[in-house]
Amino acid sequence: MSKTYVIEPGAGIESLTQRHEECPLPARRQVRVRLHAASLNYRDFLVADGRYGQGGSRVPLSDGAGEVVDVGPDCTRFAVGDRVAGLFMQGWTRGEVVDADMQTALGGPVDGVLCEERLFEESGLVAIPDSLSFEAAATLPCAALTAWNALHGLKTVASGDTVLALGTGGVSTFAVQFAAAAGARVIITSSSDDKLARVRALGADEGINYRTTPNWGEEARRLTGGRGVDFVVETGGPQTLPQSLAAVRRGGLVNMIGVLGQGEIDPLTILASGAVVRGTVVGSGEMFEAMNRAIERNAIGPIIDRVFGWDQAQEAYRYLRASHHVGKVVIRFDR
Predict the structure, then answer these.
(1) What is residue 310's three-state secondary structure?
(2) Which residue range(s) make up the domain with 234?
(3) How many CB atoms lie within 10 A of CB 20?
(4) Average pLDDT, stretch 99-121?
(5) Those residues with Cβ within 8 angstroms of residue 122's Cβ, 6 or more apart along the chain or in another chain
(6) Inter-CA distances, 306 with 14, 161, 326, 332, Å
(7) Is 46 contained in some domain?
(8) pLDDT band for position 55 (50/70/90)?
(9) Using one digit for the tens of pLDDT, what is the confidence trace for 140-149?
(10) Does pTM top 0.90 for this prediction?
């Protein structure tokens, strides 16, 4: 029997409860994975609170890593003992994302990974870097891959570019590391000078406290000599987009990723900026594998703020919601 957390979408994290459920044997081209760790994303609050547009699954969380314990007939990609992580969108293996792929997202339309064992289609898994622990690998499927897509999807970040990342959560801390590995200059924002100091140690060149510098977009542009930044990793949403547009150069790329705040977007500001504003939703399995190669080549280690035990799942949710973290919050499946 597999220990499993279930949640009632819309009922809040208080509805998160443990159960024991049987994990079926793998069918053709399926893989049974014993999960060792999972990480949380802001999206998980939207599911729990009933604010996720695609609905919510019974088993929460999208990001997990573990080891293969059984394979079904005709499975050729993995063997027992392989270390793997699940794709955020199980159906998006390569190419551009299509509407049908959006309905295969773990922890949203499809049951997630906050369970000891789970069946996957073999196409919905990737091998994880040998250099990473299960806890570190569990941070990759959403936050890391989203940051990778922002910097290597539509355009590829290069030495000499300037990247602006908002906040010090998982996506932004990965963006700092990926941009620095490419030789780019990195500017990051936060409401905390302490957090800015911690992120500079990851490779950020400049930090802007947006509480003491409310016009941080103008400050970011000033730091580039008036030219503007080449990439913005925009995790705030409507409230922060005007400042991001003030920071980006004409023809630069603003990757819209998060919607942490409410508000309206004035399309005239986009027109006036001359920037490309791109909705960026995680990435494909093919991107995941390319990112993993870069992680190993550049010895990149995910930034984990805190690791909670299996019985501390609700506490992990609350810790993330308090926004005191830098990087990722992880749940380790104690055995």
Answers:
(1) helix
(2) 145-279
(3) 9
(4) 95
(5) 29, 30, 31, 71, 75, 76, 77, 78
(6) 21, 32, 9, 10
(7) yes
(8) low
(9) 999 999 999 9
(10) yes
